[in-house]
Amino acid sequence: MNQKGKIRVAIVDDEELARQVLCEYLSAHPDVEVVAECANGFEAVKAVVEQRPELVFLDIQMPKLDGFEVLELIGPATAVVFVTAYDSYAIKAFEVHAVDYLLKPVGAERFEAALARARERLAGKLPQPDLPPAELAAAARPPSQYLDRIPVRDGTRVFIVPVSKLDYAEAQDDYVALASEGKKHLKQQTISSLETALDPSRFLRIHRSYIVNLERVARVEPYGKDSHVAVLSNGAQLPVSKSGYARLRAFLDR
Amino acid sequence: MHPILSQLRRLGLYLLAWVPLAALLAYLMDVTGGLTPGESLVLAFPLCLIYAFICLSAYYSCVATPFNRSTISRLVVIHGTGALVASGIWILLGKGLAYSLAKTTSLSSVDQNFARQIPLLLGTGVLFYLLSIDLYYVLMAMDASREAEARALQANVLAREAELRALKAQVNPHFLFNSLNSISALTSSDAPKAREMCILLGDFLRRTLGLGEKSTIPLEEELSLVHSFLAVEKVRFGARILMDENIDKEAMSVPVPPLLLQPLVENAVVHGIAHLVEGGWVRLNVKSSDGLLSVVVENTFDPDAPPRRKGGVGLANVRQRLAARYGNQASFEAKANGDCFRVSITLPAERQARAT
Q: What pLDDT digit, counting tens, does each position of A66-112 carry?
């Protein structure tokens, strides 16, 4: 909360009437200012980056990006209250990880309670949920469904990397670099959480810092005394660890 | 029911199976001595015919001592006793037969030498009886497995019907809750519109209720269900939905399974229009010709839309129901081409509504 006292809020929902309800409830709070109303995921990411709201009411099903993808792209600095009509997997994940959410039709009482909790979180009296966005998204995904695209952000611009076009991912401190079609996109995520979200029959962790798309592996060559490199069809060479080599062999020998 | 006596064909086969046994018995009698080969044959065949019928009774002692649920000692005692009793009866009847043969024909030595045959008859009698016990146990096991198979099939059919019924009656909860949320928004901004939407939603729900029990409805009725669905969605999505319809006049009265078109249009809205910021169109074409009804639903969609969180239940439902009902007389095809998604189905255009 800034010192001028007003909480800056963004409302994200593709249905105008749904945004209208939330605006109406918020209008009863003079210390809240709606700084952005967005009708799709791209707009939402842009508005959050530009307007820096402290709190976002975020619908899950929207054009362009869904609510979880938006959350991944805007980072943990913004408090988020999810809004959904019916999504049993998402609701279960919210319950388990103590993420605030509202159900449509949104009742005034539930809304006030969620707003009060958001105020406490912003004032630091309640901790922000510390689950990384990618892991929340994974928990909310229907079982046995894997990631089929990865949204990345550069400033206010959003790129979508389909996993079929992902050559490999490389860990870089708190980020992963996603190599796709000759470019590298940086994303704030741990490589382990990316690994669990990808289909294990298509992607393999070959090294502490590398996940490779198995379709791209052209060959595996020995390197030095007892290590190996994977050579991809585009010529890139990735180090393969000892345990990674065992996994890769097991796959290639199948 | 006796497995052999109940069918004439089986009885015939059973008696035929005794012919080689009779020949074997005749040979053994001849070897034992005292009888000429001719006498052996004349005695062995009627004896075996008699014994074939005596052994039919073995079935009842098999029923009384089910193989799986009886101890070995019980099986041995029951069937051993049965075999001895049956052989005993057989030998007595054989003696009677030999006596009357000796009286009525010139085969007088048959009766005189009968006593020499008794050990042989006792041995074969026990053996044949035990063989028929085996036969009955095998027949009973076969019957039991056939029955189990039929029951499993029946259960499968019932489960499938129940599943289809449940699928038919399904109203998408997402649709319902979003509509209620829209109504809630309208109550303060536009009360008359809120009331109108309550009525539209009520109208749609009323139409879907009870459709699960109907086997077919006229296409016209299904279309009005589609219209009341779209009326609700148009309040939610505003100008984002453009609907275009092209329906053959003759098709209107064709009976179709209920909830055939509505899920297709709902799919077009939920996975097509809902992901288009600027909105899009849905085109519905229905033609009836040569006893075939062809339905095509096309819509614009965003190929880069976020992955579906719950995909294709509506389409899969329609596909399964068509297959279950019409088999390969119906077809279902869903295809994306650029930013246009197209579902086309054909089904037999029945002239008369089926009795439910």
A: 999 999 999 888 999 999 998 888 999 998 888 999 999 999 999 99
- Residue B239 has which token pair? 């100008």
Last residue of a domain, one of A140, A174, A209: A140
Boundaries of domain holding A173: 149-252
Q: Tokens for A52?
A: 């820096």
State the complex-level ipTM.
0.85
Tokens of B37: 């080969």
**Would you call A65 and B181 a contact, using CB atoms and an 8 Å cutoff?**
no
Chain B closest CA to A110's CA: distance in Å?
14
Preceding omega of A105 cis (within 30 degrees of 0): yes
* CB spacing of B309 vs A21 below 8 angstroms: no
B173 and B36 in contact (C-beta within 8 Å)? no
- Say whether A62 and B302 touch across the interface (CB within 8 A): no
Q: Taking CB atoms and an 8 Å limit, are B184 and A66 in contact across chains?
A: no
Residues of B in contact with A14 (CB under 8 A): 274, 277
Structural class in CATH, domain B169-348: alpha beta
Contacts of B177 in chain A (CB under 8 A): 85-86, 103-105
Partner B contacted by A63 (CB < 8 A): yes
- The answer to whether residue B356 scores a pLDDT higher than 50 is no
How many domains does one find in chain A? 2
Q: Please determine, for residue B312, whether its predicted confidence score (pLDDT) is greater than 70.
A: no
For chain B, the 3-state helix, strand and coil shares in percent, each to the nearest 5, are 65, 15, 20
Q: Radius of gyration over alpha carbons of chain A, in Å?
A: 21
pLDDT attached to residue B280: 93
Strand ranges (E), B123-256? 217-218, 241-247, 255-256
pLDDT exceeds cutoff 90 at B350: no
